[in-house]
């Protein structure tokens, strides 16, 4: 039977694509790693890697073997945690994949508090706007934003993702402000990822419209910059553009419509009989941080209320001025 250590060596080589890197992680020389991998291939009677002088890649057999080995190693780690009662304390390396912009704005600023609470956790964040296979890539948890499909992974909603249609004042001054969904067809709509359709919720319930534009990117930050530069309209999250809305650098258009409520911010992790405490620690921390009404939505609503109050005060002041002027005119007429 293959030793667990050999499976671990194989998985690390497969993940890093490099004998030396795998050896450094385990405190072994590249020669020892290479020898153990070769012995494993001999034992299995199959080639797991294609080797060249410059590259080391998994064969088709190796890819299938790797996916199963990762599951085995996860189960072994959980079993060891259970036996040694390590699962009662949050510690160890926590590997997370998460969206770039969201992590920069709403995770990174609070990591000091998290690590202060859980000093024995070591964080390894992989930032990307793409959904990666967390099992084959060895991640403990993923933070994802979207409408998630049913899968073998466990999903926990962390917060709502409120989205609005918006544009810069520069764009609206040049091309006008749309007053209906139909008018969006005459505007340049910026797309993040495969956003050919905008799924919205409005006065008549759920609606879906096809949008078109001359800019598309898998990077949410790239589209955000294009939006701020006045290049088009976009459907964006309040967590992403809340401060710009508050400062008037972006304007909401068609405020009676918002992004579909089925889109939210989730924590996703492998379906296991029990979850490592380090994973639960991060999920609960973020869930408590954002709450039922995320702080970014509260700030946006406060700005709207403040703007409404200022508008009401101006209207009231104008009415008083008109009333005063009318009284003065009548007084003058009576004097004459």
Describe the model.
It is a single chain. It is elongated and about 90 Å long. It is built from eleven helices and 15 strands. The protein has helices at 4-16, 19-26, 30-44, 60-84, 100-106, 111-117, 169-175, 220-228, 238-247, 277-290, 295-335; strands spanning 49-51, 56-58, 92-98, 121-127, 141-146, 154-160, 163-167, 191-192, 197-202, 205-210, 216-217, 234-237, 251-252, 258-259, 264-269. A hairpin with a 4-residue loop joins strand 1 (49-51) and strand 2. With 336 residues, the chain is an alpha+beta fold. It has three domains: 1-84, Winged helix-like DNA-binding domain superfamily/Winged helix DNA-binding domain (Arc Repressor Mutant, subunit A); 87-159 and 268-292, Periplasmic binding protein-like II (D-Maltodextrin-Binding Protein, domain 2, 3-Layer(aba) Sandwich); 163-262, D-Maltodextrin-Binding Protein, domain 2 (3-Layer(aba) Sandwich), CATH 3.40.190.
Summarize it.
The chain has 336 residues and is of the alpha+beta class.
Comma- or semicolon-separated keywords:
single chain, 336 residues, Arc Repressor Mutant, subunit A, D-Maltodextrin-Binding Protein, domain 2, 3 domains, 5-stranded mixed β-sheet, 3-stranded antiparallel β-sheet, 46% helix
């Amino acid at each position: 039977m293959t030793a667990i250590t050999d499976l671990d060596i194989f998985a690390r080589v497969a993940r890093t694509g490099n004998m030396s890197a795998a050896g450094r992680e385990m405190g072994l020389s590249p020669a020892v790693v290479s020898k153990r991998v070769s012995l494993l291939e001999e034992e299995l009677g199959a080639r797991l890697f294609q080797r060249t002088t410059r590259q080391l890649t998994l064969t088709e057999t190796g890819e299938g073997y790797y996916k199963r080995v990762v599951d085995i190693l996860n189960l072994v780690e959980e079993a060891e945690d259970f036996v040694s009662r390590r699962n009662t304390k949050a510690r160890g390396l926590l590997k997370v994949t998460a969206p770039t912009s969201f992590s920069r704005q709403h995770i990174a600023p609070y990591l000091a508090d998290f690590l202060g609470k859980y000093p024995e956790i070591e964080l390894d964040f992989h930032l990307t706007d793409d959904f990666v296979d967390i099992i084959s890539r060895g991640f403990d948890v993923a933070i994802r934003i979207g409408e998630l499909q049913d899968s073998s992974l466990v999903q926990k909603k962390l917060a709502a993702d409120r989205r609005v249609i918006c544009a810069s004042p520069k764009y609206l001054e040049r091309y006008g402000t749309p007053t209906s969904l139909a008018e969006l067809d005459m505007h340049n709509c910026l797309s993040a990822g495969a956003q050919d359709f905008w799924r919205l919720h409005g006065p008549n319930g759920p609606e879906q419209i096809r949008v078109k534009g001359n800019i598309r990117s898998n990077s949410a930050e790239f589209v955000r910059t294009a939006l701020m530069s006045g290049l088009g309209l976009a459907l964006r999250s309040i967590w992403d553009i809340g401060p710009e809305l508050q400062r008037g650098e972006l304007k909401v258009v068609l405020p009676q419509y918002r992004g579909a409520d089925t889109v939210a911010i989730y924590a996703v992790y492998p379906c296991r009989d029990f979850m490592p405490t380090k994973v639960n620690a991060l999920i609960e921390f973020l869930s408590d941080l954002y709450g039922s009404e995320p702080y970014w939505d509260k700030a946006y609503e406060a700005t709207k209320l403040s703007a409404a109050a200022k508008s009401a005060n101006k209207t009231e002041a104008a009415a008083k001025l008109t009333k005063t002027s009318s009284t003065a005119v009548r007084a003058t007429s009576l004097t004459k």
